[in-house]
Design goal:
Number of domains of chain A: 3
CATH class of the largest domain in chain A: Alpha Beta
Oligomer: homodimer
CATH superfamily of the largest domain in chain A: Response regulator
Structural class of chain A: alpha/beta
Strand order of the largest sheet of chain A: 2-1-3-4-5-11
CATH architecture of the largest domain in chain A: 3-Layer(aba) Sandwich
Helix content of chain A: 40-55%
CATH topology of the largest domain in chain A: Rossmann fold
Shape of chain A: elongated
Largest sheet of chain A: 6 strands, parallel
Radius of gyration of chain A: 26 Å
Largest interface: A-B, 66 and 65 residues
Distance between the termini of chain A: 80 Å
DNA sequence: GATGCCAGTGTTATCGTCAACATTACCACG
DNA sequence: CGTGGTAATGTTGACGATAACACTGGCATC
């Protein structure tokens, strides 16, 4: 039933009141050296650890944060979560992890639970626009930091990347290699991150003679395969595919293999969001990578700062994206090596 | 500062006492239909959610579990964590995730924090033997379930696989294909899981004319490469390598590629612990797979059962292992196709 | 019609901790 | 020598919820 010594046990053992023990533990008032020593010994001997829950009831701080993501199993979120946990641990906080599978209902359900749980603050990678979630957090004055996804006019702080610029740089890289017909595999319209990336990608085309076709409605590895099939049937056939998230990238790669298309000899493939290098049999994909770990850390720091001084205007932290060049993108196949 | 309506706010609005509200919320006593309706409306209008922290102080149940693993970033643990979270969520529990990086100190530190946090129970994938952790949990009467790793004579319940049998079946598979010189890449001696797997692997050799060489002290992808190098230099050269965890497997695969050895044509490679299929560009490795997700779910169910009736003798749940046959193992290279 | 039971509600105390306010004792100062 | 200040401790009550118990009134039972 989980019994622990209480502050009163310590007090009794040291022959003082619980208040004095509290002062020793929290350095919240003057205590004579003799008493301090007695109390500390009693704490040691009993293995006393203050109950954060009782403390939380009184002080309204539980030293607990929550991280809400769509699926911890997605390596981007796994890495993010590790960053969150490390930063929280450094500051003596614990982290609850919640998976929503992109469901706004789950998002709300968790937020309610967490609010009831008296977490000090929440890191949220929003499903869709997270309107309800944000409203709820605001109503409850629950500190909330948004991660990865841009929310327009949010009254909450946010840590993200300039994902539009990232998409643009991938496209510029492709254009620079000579690609002129490019297919873009995107999520359904309405998912902000995907929309931003599409926009960035299209921006890169302005003033060029290249052409891009955007396939929407792609949610998973399997639907990515369909996009690839349609893409391979096009005339003129795209010489490069840009997949806007890591699962789509994998899906595209597998579909290309299945259709016998060599990457990058026959067709180039670029992705968004890196896969954890330690797990890959061979690091191969050229991608625009978000600094997931750092994003987690930065989110925690921002969140804890806001918890301690519940201030002020929302902050926006923009982290740099990196174009990680590996082997999956080459020049277009029929680009006669000129000169 | 995170303000929420309290049970008293609801009571006032409904014109009853907080006790009556509590009865409505928890169905813990008779309430007339009229009053119940009033209270429910008040709850609705105020958006009242009971404070689990206050509730926890009184009832000693916080509906919070913790999962301690070495590194959530290892896909085995990621999947395990997802199973834990799903099962917990089904039962309205929240989960704290803690990373120890195999450090016993961290393990203890977290356990202390968690106990102070009044979690209801802990799921632990132990670093080493976890003696201190187990002792602490026992002293605090903190429900604890051990996952994945076998602890001899543990007074705690445990969910794991028959990892020895798994290793044996991989070896039998290799022997069946004709391999007679097999290298085994293992972790340092003293890590129970690895030791068990080694033992199982060697058991499979009894009564056969095959020979195995065990390389210990391999902790990561990088050290795996060293093992592979030594292995390639051996005379007679092993025709198959069996790596006892997923990182070693990846490391071995990369090292083999680097040395120009084709898998499985020149040398076969078998692994332990699967990699998440959705992330692989091509599912290729033949491995002994532990049901990570199910292990997480089973652990939660066991833990919650023990929390509600703090009983009895420890339970042991053994989950089945699966030999997932894919492409990385073939017959030994110079096995002349006879007949 | 007294007795007992039970549905429906309220009262009080408590979980472990800490904020706020006492209380004591000693010392400095004019 | 009284006044006031401060260091060191104690006392009380509150955080939000619920367990344990107490009360009220209606109805069945003999």
């Amino acid at each position: 039933m989980h019994v622990r010594p209480t502050i009163r046990d310590v007090a009794a053992k040291a022959g003082v009141t619980d208040m004095t023990v509290s002062r020793v533990v929290n350095r919240s008032g003057p205590v004579s050296d003799a008493v301090r020593a007695r109390v500390e010994r009693a704490i040691e001997e009993l293995g006393y650890v203050p109950s954060r829950i009782a403390r939380g009831l009184r002080s309204r701080r539980t030293h607990t944060l929550a991280l809400i993501v769509s699926d911890i199993t997605n390596p981007f979120f796994t890495t993010l979560a590790r960053g969150v946990e490390d930063a929280a641990s450094d500051r003596e906080h614990l982290v609850m992890v919640c998976n929503t599978d992109e469901s706004e209902e789950e998002e709300i359900r968790y937020l309610e639970m967490l609010s009831g749980q008296n977490v000090d603050g929440v890191l949220l990678v929003p499903a869709k626009g997270a309107e309800q979630a944000r409203a709820l957090a605001k109503r409850r004055q629950l500190p909330l930091v948004i991660l990865e996804r841009r929310i327009p006019e949010s009254e909450h702080s946010i840590v993200h990347c300039d994902t539009r610029a990232g998409a643009r740089s991938m496209m510029q890289y492709l254009l620079g290699l000579g690609h002129r017909e490019i297919a873009i595999l995107a999520s359904p319209i309405g998912i902000a991150t995907s929309d931003d990336r599409v926009q960035g990608a299209l921006e890169a085309l302005e003033g060029s003679d290249a052409n891009a076709t955007v396939f929407h409605e792609l949610l998973s590895r399997d639907t990515a395969a369909k996009g690839v099939e349609r893409c391979l049937g096009m005339v003129p056939r795209p010489t490069a595919i840009f997949a806007l998230n890591n699962l789509l990238t994998i899906g595209a790669l597998r579909a290309l293999r299945m259709h016998g298309a060599r990457v990058p000899e026959d067709i180039s493939l670029g992705g968004f969001d890196d896969l954890p290098e330690p797990l890959l049999e061979r690091p191969f994909l050229t991608v625009v990578a978000q600094p997931a770990y750092e994003m987690g850390r930065a989110g925690v720091e921002l969140l804890i700062a806001e918890i301690s001084k519940p201030t002020s205007a929302p902050t926006e932290i923009v982290l740099p994206l990196e174009l990680v060049i590996r082997g999956s993108i080459g020049p277009p196949p029929n680009s006669a090596p000129e000169g």
